[in-house]
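Re: weekly structure request thread

Next one in the queue (256 aa):
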Amino acid sequence: MLKIGNKLLNFFIGMIILVIIWQIVIWVGNYPEALLPSPYSVGKAILTLVVEGTLFEHLKVSLGRFVAGYFSAIIPAILLGMVLARLPLVWQVIDPIVQVLRPVSPVAWSPFIVLWFGIGNMPAIVIIFIASFFPVLLTTVAGVNKIDRSYLKIAENLEIKKLPFMYKFIFPAAFPSIVSGLRLAVGTAWIFLVAGEMVGAQSGLGFLIVDARNTLNLDYVLAGIIFIGVSGFILDRLIGIFERWVGKHWGMVKST
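Done, posted below.
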């Protein structure tokens, strides 16, 4: 409990420092509100969005898209990664394909995604899927490949069936690497979700920013940016909590 309190305190201290720097930049640069809204103006915009319920409507839509795209990507990526890591000859053929596709920004596929899936929720979900799939796949393969070969031989000598072998041995042993991919995928997926919503969506946090920009309400633009950053921070911490829970369940970390 004390650790949680310290983390919250550190978070608020960091936010206060950021706001102070923000205000100093406005004073030093002598920026008008039309170019860089003050913390006070953005605070009023945040309060208005919260009171009107607009924030929660857009946030609910964005989170729904994120959950659908993220989980539809990480589950097959983990399963496929564990299988491919156990088939090195197949992985040697698949790996170059993955390495060619992985650096391509998911947004670059948006013209095709819109043509194939239309407008609405699906384009954003597909973009999140692409952004999440490759980091988890690669870290899963790397995690399985790092497992001590002597342990694998012992498990094989015990003639453990393939399915129990995968989820009772391979997955727990590779989990530290897999969770690194999960955290990386959260960040990239959240970034590209907002980018996807800026392209053609009519709702969500990305749309909120574009709509505010089109009406020159830069205080609402910054309010949307703050919500996106805080939401991404919370999602990352949730993955961290999941990591610690699984670690305690499997005896990887000491209970506190």
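The chain has two domains: 1-30, 38-249. DSSP finds ten helices and no strands in the chain.
Next request, please.
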